[in-house]
Amino acid sequence: MTAIFAQHARLPDGDAALGGTAARWARGVRIEVDAQGNIGAVAENASPRPGDEAVSIVLPGMADLHSHAFQRAMAGLAETAQAAGDDFWSWREWMYRFMARLTPEDLQAIAAQLYLEKLQRGCTAVVEFHYVHHDPQGRPYADPAHMGHRLIAAAQEAGIGLTLAPVLYTYGGFGRAPLQAHQQRFATQVDDVLRMLQSLRPAVDADAGQLALGLAPHSLRAVEAAQIHALLAGVDAAMPMHIHAAEQTREVDACLDVLGCRPVRHLLDAVGLDARWCVVHATHLSAGEVQGLAASGAVAGLCPSTEANLGDGLFPFVEYAAEGGRWGLGGDAHVCRDPFEELRAVEYAQRLARRRRNLAAVQAGAGSSRIGDRLWDAAVAGGAQASGRRIGRLAPGYRADLVVARLADAAADAYDIEDWLNQAVFGGGGVQVAAAMVGGRWQLRDGQHRDAAGIHARYRAALARLIG
Ligand SMILES: [Zn+2]
User: Fold this and answer.
1) Catalytic: 133?
2) What is the mean pLDDT of the chain?
3) Is the pLDDT of residue 366 over 60?
4) Could you give the residue ranges of the DSSP H alpha helices within 404-447?
5) Spacing, Cα 377 to ligand 1 middle (Å)
6) What is the pLDDT of residue 363?
7) Cβ atoms 257, 405 nearer than 8 A
8) Active-site entry in 332, 338, 373, 401
9) What spacing in Å lies between the alpha carbon of 351 and ligand 1's midpoint?
10) Is 206 exposed, middle or buried (0-12, 13-18, 19+ CB in 10 A)?
11) Spatial CA neighbour of 26 closest among 450, 395, 439, 454
C-alpha cells in the first residue's frame, strides 16, 4: 500500500450521487492507495505516518474529454493567411491532407508525446475520439482496430488513463452524402465499429483500471439517428457516448434543411440524451436547446482553444451554467495542452462578449464564489463523467489519479490556499506539475517521466517525416 500525506488537497464537497461537483481545500490530508490503484481511504486533519510520501498541494487530475491525438502534430502549422480566406472548412481540407500520410507508428508516437504533455500539465486521463481507422488508401487493416490498439499502446507508454471511443463515420454530409476521397480512412458502418470494440475489449479488460471503451457516432453530418440507436443496442448501458454537434453555423443550417430542426434538438428528440452522453462543442444553441441539453444530464464538451483557433463561435456558457448544465474540457486539436489556460479562455471569452466580469460565479448551485474554483471543479467532474471511469474525486473507491502542483510565481507561498485555483487560472504565472499519479503509480516525479527521452525522440522522427 502507498500513502500520500498532503499539506492541502482538493476534496469533494458533497455527494457524487446527488450530482454535486463542488470541492474544497482540506488540510493535512492522508490518502491511502490500494494495490489495485484505487483510493482506499482519505483522512483530513491527519498526521503523517512513517513511510508516507509527503507532498504539498494535491488536486484530482483533470480528464481531457475530447482528443484527436494525431492533430497534436499539426499545432501551429495552419496559421498562414490564405488568399481565398480561411475557415473551419478550409482548415478541415488541410487537416485531411496532413492525415493522409499518417501511419500507425506515427499515430502512436504523436499520441504518446501528447499524453505525456497532458500529464505534465495536470491531466491524468483522456477520451480519444478516434476516427482514423483505415490505411492511407482507405483499406481496413488486418485487425480493423489496429489504429485503436496504437492509441492504447501510447496511453500505456505515457501512463495516462484512456477512454477509447471508436468513431462511426458513414456519410460525407447531411442527406447521406457520399464520403470524399480523404474521408475513406474513416468509412465505417455500425457493424464495423462494433467489431472494433470486440477487437479492443481483451486489451482493455487486461488493464481495466486504466482503460475503458466508449463509442462516438461522429456527428449528424456523418451518422443518422437510426444508426445511433443500432449502436446503443449493441453495447451495455453504461458505455459513454460522444458526438460532435453544432460546431459550425453551416452545419446547423444544413441540419435545418435536411432534418427540419437544429442538431442538438434532433439529438434530444430523435436520439435521447442522458448522462452517458458527451455533446462536443454544442456551440450554436437556441434557448430551448440550452435548457434541454442542461436538463438531459449530458456533458457539454467545450474545447476553448480549438474553437477559438477554428473560429467556431461562442458557446452560451453563462446561460447553460445558470441551468445547471454539466461541462468539461476537450483539447480537441491540441493547440493548447494546459487545462488552466483552457479554463481562463472559457471565462475570458464570456467577459469579452458581455463586457462583464466574474461570470462563472453566476452558475447555479452552492460552492465557492471564486471563479477558479468553480471552473476547475466543474471541469474535473464533467471530464470524469464523460470518461465513464471512476475518476475525478479524491475519495475512497475512486481511481488514485492525482497531481502534485505548485504555482509558478515568485511569491507562490504567500497566497492563501483558498486563492490557489484563482492564481492558477488567472494569476498569469502558470502552474508547475511536480508529480502525477495515475492508477496509484507515479508516472511523473520531480517533473520527470521515465521514458520522456524515448517518447520525444519518436515524436520528433514522426513529425519530421509528416512535414518533410
Ligand atoms: Zn473533435
Assistant:
1) no
2) 95
3) no
4) 420-426
5) 23
6) 55
7) no
8) 332
9) 25
10) exposed
11) 395
> Is the per-residue pLDDT at 15 higher than 80?
no
Question: For the chain, how many residues are written?
Answer: 468
The reply to whether the predicted model has a pTM over 0.90 is: yes
Q: For residue 71, report the distance from its CA to the centre of ligand 1, in Å.
A: 10
pLDDT the model gives residue 80: 86
From 87-101, 120-134, 450-464, the region with the lowest mean pLDDT: 87-101
Q: Are 6 and 31 in contact (CB under 8 A)?
A: yes
pLDDT tens digit sequence for 211-229: 999 999 999 999 999 999 9
Model confidence at 119: pLDDT above 60: yes
Residues around ion ligand 1, judged by CB within 5 A, are 332
In terms of DSSP bridges, do strands 402-407 and 53-60 run parallel, antiparallel, or are they unpaired? Answer: antiparallel
Q: How far is ligand 1, taken at its centre, from the CA of residue 330, in Å?
A: 8
- State in Å: Cα 312 to ligand 1 middle: 12
Burial class (CB in 10 A: 0-12, 13-18, 19+), 212: buried
372 close to 425: Cβ distance less than 8 angstroms: yes
Measured in angstroms, how far is the CA atom of residue 220 from the centroid of ligand 1? 13
Ligand 1 center from residue 219 Cα (angstroms)? 10
* Among candidate residues 19, 16, 12, the one with its CA nearest the CA of residue 297: 19
Q: Is 281 assigned a catalytic role?
A: yes
Backbone angles phi, psi at 216, to 5 degrees: -140, 90
First CA to last CA distance, the chain: 48
Q: Which of 281, 284, 334, 449 is catalytic?
A: 281
Q: What is the CA radius of gyration of the chain?
A: 21
Q: Which three cell numbers stand for residue 30?
A: 492522508
Q: Dihedral sign, CA of 438, 444, 449, 455?
A: positive
Instruction: Note whether 440 and 36 are within 8 A (CB).
Output: yes
